[in-house]
Structure formats: C-alpha cells, structure tokens
Amino acid sequence: RYLELLLKVAETANEAQNFHSLFRDALTGVTSHSGWIAGPIYIEAKEKGHMFRLDLFPITGIPLPGRLEDLLPSTLVEQVLQTARPWAHRIPGTPDNTNPAWVEVPPNSIFAFPLLTGAAAVGVLIFLGNDKNAPDKKLGELMRHIGAQLGRAVERQRDRQVLEKSEAYFRRLTENSLDIITILDASGTILYESPS
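RE: above sequence
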C-alpha cells in the first residue's frame, strides 16, 4: 500500500507541469492513505527570504478551535525548514481522541513534513490529524521519501522557470539588437546567428 503511494507520487512529480497539479495529486494520495486532512503548503522562494503559500484543499467545515493561522505556531514552518525534519504540534484546547479508529473525530494535531532537496528543506507540507492517526515510524519514513520526491520536483520546476526566463531574455536581446550576433562552437561551426 505504501509502495503504491510512493510510486504514484513519483509519477506525479515527474509529470507535473506546475505546483498546483503536483501537490494536488500527490497530497490527495497521502490523505487517502493516512486519514489526514491536507493543510497549506509552504514553499521557500528561490531567492530565499520569503515564502509562498498554497491552499489547495479547503479546510472550511473542519471543526477546529480557531483559525488555522492562529493554531499554527509561528515558528513551526521555520523549524521544519531549518532542521529539514518533521515536526508535530498538538492543537491547544483539543481533547485526546479516545474513540475507536473508525469514528471520525476532529483533528487535534498538526503534522509538518519537509520538502527535501538533498539534506536541505525547500518547503513544508502541513497536515491535520489526531492521536489515532499520528505518523508511526513506517509512515514517517514514507513521508520522508514523499518529501524528497516533491522537493526534487520543486527544484526542477524552479530550474525550468530560470531557464525559460534566461531564454526569453537572450531571445529579446538577440532579436532586437542592431548588431549581428553569431555564436560559434569550438570548430567554428555557426550555432546561432541573429536575424539582424
């Protein structure tokens, strides 16, 4: 079951054309396997220093003792980014879940998992759950692999955007230049010549 999810996430990560489809498809699989509720996704900007947030799954109607923004510790996302390790946070004012596993109960915990590129975190996945579906060692290991798959996809998407921006700049520069621009390889073969 976990292997199927990991393969689905890897396939999604390789085929996704943008962040929305990447995370929507991958997190749908995670939530169906874990019983968690997908929260926001935080992705660190390439330039560092600021973060953007994706809210792909509505959490309206989920009984929480306040707004999610107020329940998330202000340092949680930063802790996950700095340590590249998962963190769990108990939502203040929520009781333990003493119901049987088949009874649907409101979340009482927030789980945060890093999106990894190598040993560094580039983003954070937030999930809502409770003490009945808290991540065990096996699920924690699965989420580490999923975080690595999604983190590499984030890096590929960033690299693609940088390349497209560079190509567009080069194209504008060469197509609007009054001078002829020629690019040769080492043997003198013309690789590119501007239209001027």
